[in-house]
Every structure is written in C-alpha cells, then in structure tokens.
Amino acid sequence: MADIGVTGVGGEAPTAEATTPQEITYAECVLCRKPTEYPETVKGATLCPVCEWQEAQRMACSG
Asked: 40: closest CA among 23, 24, 26, 19?
C-alpha cells in the first residue's frame, strides 16, 4: 500500500516553520486586547473566544 502524506494547498507538503506554535503570532481581540485563536494574518475583526461568545449572545437576543 502506498504511503500518502499530508499535503498543503496546491499539493505541497507543509513546512516545519509553518506548523510550529512558536512561529505563529496570534492577533489581539479588538474588544479586550487578549490573544485570539487566529493568526495575525487573518483579515477582519478578530475576537477572543469569550468576546466572540458574548457577541453571539447579543446578536441572538437582538431579535
């Protein structure tokens, strides 16, 4: 049986630099400035898990 490895976008194997947690810089929450679970390269308003949950509660109750 052939050994099938994990490939990245375009069929390229991911590099070791991209997969190490030390290399990832996480974005700050736009509301409380705590680190989020998203890298800094993510576009848009990033929220930490707590603020994201609170925002979802506000949107659900706004009718």
From this structure: 26
